[in-house]
């Protein structure tokens, strides 16, 4: 039986194994036979045994015992054995294996061999698994082969030089003269390798750009020859002449033309010719056009050429291939800020991509659609986005809702339209909106005094119809509590009036309180609304009192505390109830306590030069705590002298008891500290000590650049003795121009009260580039966690 048949027979037997155990048995027997063949020395069967071992290696079984046999076969004078030895070295050896160093001398000798095929084997092996040491030793030999007359060897030597540059970048200068001369080659393989080599040299060493920019006219001529050349069956792919070489040349031109007017001007005409003459109906043509578009957008090209590039991407959106549509929208997303009007022309096609079956295409279309929203098209675009919200996958609802909110915040034509839009989102996807949506909408409603009657009627109808959307129910309860008198009047010019009785309103609120779908926060809104109605209705105060008293023994502590306080208002402080429960004043969105995470206003840090007023309730605290508080708020450099606490005479007045019951009405604002500021991204922290061992850290990110920051994520690490819990972020897109923020809350538990440190990793994408940085907060004093942290950027 011939050796080749023996290999085929082994493959047949292994494939016919019925169980994994049977296969392992066959492999073990064959490996034992292979070892025996290796021990017999030079018997002519070693190359066939190694071939069988390589097949065993491909199946995932150990084959390390064949490494030394590869070294022996490489040194053999027979071509068939040398070929199998080099193949085995590429599969079984890598730069981490000591045996790889043993073949360095053999490769060096074979690089000078008279046969081009032996030289080819050595070049392929070095390019595949050559270590840094091997590359340093053999780089002069590769540089010599780059000047050889044989095109077959030149091609492989060029690719080997690319590997050497990647392994040992300091050897790049050795190949610069030879690389420049290779551009005059007529052989497509050598020319392709030369372009790859020059691209690698320019990417690794920017100092070489000026040298190779002199070759731009030559590259332009090569590219024109490819575009206008007649049909060549050897290099033609679907009617495109050598698309692989065209793509490589375009990538090199993109590098050479970046931020260089002279080089860009030299290639403008070529890019226009490629963009207009290349057939996009085939995948090969689409690949060339895509690289052309990227080159046009990255160099200092003419405005008309950029419009042509955007139109090519617009044609890609009509392609049946989803991959082409995806990369088209990805490219449009990168340039929408700089070429907004040109991208706007394809808005209809982009919106149609929202109906695609592929989720990834939908996500890209959503990002691009949100970026195209402007004051001119806000109504038509929002109509399409609201339709998409009602049918989009669950994983896209949160992103869609956040994008609609941001767009409505920026470009709303009127407050009524703004309120209607947000209510539509809450009705459709109320469970997928961010936490700050409710306070933001409440703030918007309070400022639109002329729409209070319209809003409360609309929210009441939505509440009666559906109580499953928690955010909508919370806003509805708040509005009913504030403007319930307007609802009961039934007079509204902007909406069809509905006669609502006091019993109807109370039944709706009771339904929310008793529903199993209501969260504790929603029940809190409903209980407070019920209490506020006690000053806005006349006939059902006793019913309200009974509703409130029921929750005085509620298992939820928040509801229980509210109910106890409200009962106290009914019993001991009934004469003050109307004043305490009067309408809330108009909320200033930029005031402390009303930022709600995502606002256009900035949280102002406390001015250390201005003294902070201390409330009367704080005077009874120990002097050390007062010092800590003043230190938190940015006190002076002069150390404070503790003063004895003044004696407070207890009083029994109703107002004093009420203040004690309801707590301080004006909380001291928590200062913010900037811990990271780079590339227009600013990250601030707020530290709030909850108990002796618990602290809450709020991370606030804002964006001052001209374009949105996407894929924003935060990761935090603390010492092992500290327990960390990160809440879900408010979003992953930070709007441009500081028009919004992303917040994330971190809960820390420090039972041992050790010195607290935190390391934060910031990751985000901006203008197509991915950024990642780390910052360390080194100081959280154990007794004064509210103090400003010490920042060490990494």
Secondary-structure map:
Layout: H1 3-15, H2 20-39, H3 46-58, H4 67-74, H5 79-92, H6 104-111, H7 116-129, H8 132-145, H9 151-167, H10 172-182, H11 188-204, H12 209-213, H13 216-228, E1 236-237, E2 240-241, H14 243-257, H15 261-277, H16 283-298, H17 303-316, H18 322-335, H19 340-344, H20 347-352, H21 359-372, H22 378-391, H23 394-411, H24 415-429, H25 437-447, H26 452-465, H27 470-489, H28 502-514, H29 520-533, H30 541-550, H31 557-571, H32 577-580, H33 623-632, H34 654-662, E3 673-678, E4 681-689, E5 694-703, E6 710-717, E7 723-726, E8 741-749, E9 756-766, E10 769-780, E11 791-793
Helix pairs in contact: 1-2, 1-3, 2-3, 3-5, 4-5, 5-7, 6-7, 7-9, 8-9, 9-11, 10-11, 11-14, 13-14, 13-15, 14-16, 15-16, 15-17, 16-17, 16-18, 17-18, 18-21, 21-23, 22-23, 22-24, 23-24, 25-27, 26-27, 27-28, 27-29, 28-29, 29-30, 29-31, 30-31
pLDDT averaged residue by residue: 81
SS class: alpha+beta
SS elements, strand count: 11
State which percent range the strand residues make up: 5-15%
Determine the number of helices (DSSP H or I, runs of at least 4 residues): 34
User: Roughly how many Å apart are the termini?
Assistant: 67 Å
User: What percent of the residues sit in helical stretches (DSSP H or I)?
Assistant: 40-55%
The largest sheet has its strands arranged as 3-4-5-8-7
Shape: elongated
């Amino acid at each position: 039986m011939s050796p080749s048949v023996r290999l085929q027979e082994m493959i047949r037997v292994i494939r016919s194994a019925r169980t994994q155990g049977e296969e392992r048995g066959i492999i073990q027997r064959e490996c034992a036979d292979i070892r025996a063949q290796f021990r017999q020395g030079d018997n002519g069967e070693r190359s066939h045994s190694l071939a069988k071992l390589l097949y065993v290696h491909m199946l995932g079984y150990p084959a390390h015992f064949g490494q030394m046999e590869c070294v022996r076969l490489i040194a053999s004078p027979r071509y068939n054995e040398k070929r199998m030895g080099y193949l085995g070295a590429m599969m079984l050896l890598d730069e981490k294996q000591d045996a790889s160093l043993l073949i360095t001398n053999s490769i060096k000798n074979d690089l000078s061999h008279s046969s081009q095929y032996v030289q080819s084997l050595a070049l392929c092996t070095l390019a595949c698994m050559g270590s840094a040491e091997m590359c340093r030793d053999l780089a002069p030999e590769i540089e010599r082969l780059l000047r050889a007359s044989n095109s077959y060897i030149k091609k492989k030597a060029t690719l080997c030089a690319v590997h050497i540059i990647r392994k040992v970048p300091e050897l790049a200068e050795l190949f610069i003269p030879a690389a420049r001369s290779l551009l005059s080659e007529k052989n497509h393989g050598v020319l392709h390798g030369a372009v790859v080599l020059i691209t690698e040299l320019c990417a690794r060493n920017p100092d070489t750009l000026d040298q190779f920019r002199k070759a731009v006219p030559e590259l332009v001529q090569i590219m024109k020859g490819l575009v206008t050349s007649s049909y060549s069956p050897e290099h033609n792919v679907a009617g495109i002449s050598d698309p692989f070489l065209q793509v490589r040349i375009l990538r090199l031109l993109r590098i050479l033309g970046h931020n260089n007017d002279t080089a860009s001007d030299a290639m403008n005409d070529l890019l226009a010719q490629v963009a207009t003459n290349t057939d996009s109906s085939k995948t090969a043509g689409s690949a060339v056009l895509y690289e052309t578009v990227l080159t046009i957008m990255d160099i200092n090209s003419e405005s008309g050429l950029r419009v042509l590039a955007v139109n090519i991407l617009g044609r890609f959106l009509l392609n049946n291939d989803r991959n082409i549509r995806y990369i088209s929208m990805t490219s449009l997303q990168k340039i929408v800020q700089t070429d907004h009007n040109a991208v706007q022309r394809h808005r209809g096609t982009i919106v149609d991509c929202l109906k695609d079956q592929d989720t990834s295409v939908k996500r890209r279309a959503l990002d691009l659609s949100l970026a195209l929203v402007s004051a001119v098209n806000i109504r038509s675009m929002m109509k399409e986005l609201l339709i998409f919200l009602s049918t989009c996958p669950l994983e896209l609802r949160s992103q869609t809702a956040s994008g609609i909110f941001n767009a409505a915040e920026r470009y709303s034509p009127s407050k009524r339209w703004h309120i209607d839009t947000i209510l539509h989102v809450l009705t459709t996807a109320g469970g997928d909106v961010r936490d700050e949506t409710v306070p933001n909408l409440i703030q918007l409603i309070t400022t639109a005094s002329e729409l209070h009657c319209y809003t409360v009627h609309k929210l009441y109808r939505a509440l009666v119809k559906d109580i499953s959307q928690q955010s909508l129910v919370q806003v509805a309860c708040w509005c009913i509590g504030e403007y319930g008198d307007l609802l009961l009047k039934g007079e509204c010019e902007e909406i069809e009036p509905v006669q609502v009785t006091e019993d109807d309103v109370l039944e709706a609120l009771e339904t929310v309180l008793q529903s199993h779908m209501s969260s504790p926060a929603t029940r809190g809104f409903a209980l407070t609304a019920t209490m506020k109605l006690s000053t806005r209705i006349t006939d059902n105060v006793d019913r309200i009192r009974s509703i409130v008293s029921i929750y005085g023994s509620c298992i939820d502590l928040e509801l229980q505390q509210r109910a106890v306080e409200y009962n106290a208002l009914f019993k001991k402080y009934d004469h003050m109830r109307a004043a305490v429960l009067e309408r809330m004043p108009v909320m200033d969105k930029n005031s402390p306590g009303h930022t709600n995470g995502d606002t256009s206003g900035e949280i102002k840090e406390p001015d250390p030069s201005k003294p902070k007023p201390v409330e009367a309730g704080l005077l009874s605290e120990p002097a050390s705590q007062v010092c800590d508080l003043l230190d938190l708020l940015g006190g002076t450099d002069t150390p404070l002298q503790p003063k004895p606490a003044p004696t407070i005479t207890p009083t029994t007045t109703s107002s004093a008891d009420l203040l004690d019951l309801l707590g301080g009405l004006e909380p001291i604002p928590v200062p913010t500290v900037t811990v990271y500021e780079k590339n227009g991204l600013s990250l601030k922290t707020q530290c709030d000590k909850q108990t002796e061992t618990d602290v809450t850290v709020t991370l606030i990110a804002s964006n001052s650049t001209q374009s949105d920051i996407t894929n924003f994520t935060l990761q935090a690490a603390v010492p092992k003795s500290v327990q960390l819990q990160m809440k879900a972020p408010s979003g992953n897109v930070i709007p441009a121009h500081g028009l919004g923020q992303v917040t994330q809350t971190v809960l820390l538990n420090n039972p041992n009260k050790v010195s607290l440190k935190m390391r934060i990793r910031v990751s985000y994408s901006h203008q197509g580039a991915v950024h990642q940085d780390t910052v360390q907060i080194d100081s959280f004093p154990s007794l004064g966690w509210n103090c400003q942290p010490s920042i060490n950027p990494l």
